[in-house]
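Review form for a predicted model. The reviewer records the input and the model, then writes brief findings.
Reviewer: anonymous (R2)
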Amino acid sequence: SFGDIVWVPWTYTLQMQCLYFYYKRNPNHWSLDLLNNTRTGKDIVLWTWLTIIFMLFILGYLIFRQSNIQKHRFRQLYSRQQSQHKGPVECLIWGREPKYIQTKRGTKLLISGWWGVGRHMNYTGDWMMSMCQSLCCDNFTFCVAPSNILVYFNPIYFAILLIHRESRDNLRCKMKYKDDWDKYCEKVPYRMI
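Model under review:
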């Protein structure tokens, strides 16, 4: 489809395209000399900023991966219990047995780990990674040129997409689980953080 062939490759590489074309036109603005031992105050601020962005990116990645792994392991445990499969399935979330809400439909809603913090923490982690890519890119342009809003297209678009997706998920789950979804929302009040 158009989205897979054109839209996704364009939006996911937009930050690097902005950097490439900016520095292609302005090659003298690249001020980081990694082989030179002298550092200016501007370089120290830049590397400090890049380190902070990198740490936030890693945090976003951990939230994204851990929340998806927690959901996967919980579903795996639940499906094994339903099929009466013999053999242990270890499902510890943050070192404890998972907590959940048993629904009237016979399914379980996880309220442990990241899924006890927010209903879609995997979306939060994914968005954090997108934002960090733009912050990193804008950091270079900020140090040498005015900020460029095009660099922030991906996280802005992604935020709109994820918020819309979360609201659709919320509506679908409300229709599917009815009163149990209200109990779940009381236990996990935050949608995304």
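Findings: The chain has a mean pLDDT of 82.
Further findings: The helical segments are 2-12, 14-25, 41-82, 114-117, 121-144, 153-177, 179-187.
Recommendation: see findings above.
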